[in-house]
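Justification of computing resources. Each target in the renewal requires a structure prediction run like the one illustrated here; the chain below, 145 residues long, is used simply to show the kind of job we budget for.
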Amino acid sequence: MRSISSIMTQHHRLCDQHFSDMENAAAEQEWGTVDQALTLLCSHIEDHFSEEENFLFPAFEQQVGSSQGPTQVMRMEHQQVRELLESLKKAVQERSQDQVMGYSDTLMIMVQQHNMKEEQILYPMIDEALGDDQPVLGQLEQLLD
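Resulting C-alpha cells:
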C-alpha cells in the first residue's frame, strides 16, 4: 500500500525533473523549451503546494490539534518559493540567461532543503498521524495522474 510520504516524495521527483529540464534548456538558451518546462514546473509546484496547504496540512493539523510548528514553517517556505518562481519567470521572459541561472541556483538550494525537511521529518509525522486514511491517499494520488 502506498503511503502519504511515498506519494508526495514521488511528486517532488516529478517537479525536480521539470526543474532539471528547464535549467538544462536555459544553459543552452533553448528558450522555447525553457518556457515549456517552466510552465510545467510552476503548474506542478503550485498543485503540490495547494494539495499540502488546502488538504494535507489541515488534515494533519486537525488530527494533532495544532496548526503551529512544521506546517506553519512549510507554508512560509512555500511563499518564498512562489516569490522566487515569479522572479525566475521574469528573467525567462527577458531571456536573461545569467539571471535565469542565478535564480535557478537559489531555487534549487531552497527546494532541496524544503523537500528534505518534508521527506525526512514532516511526511513521516503525517504518515504516523493519518495512517492509511483512504480519502487522504486518494486525494493525493491525483497529483501523480
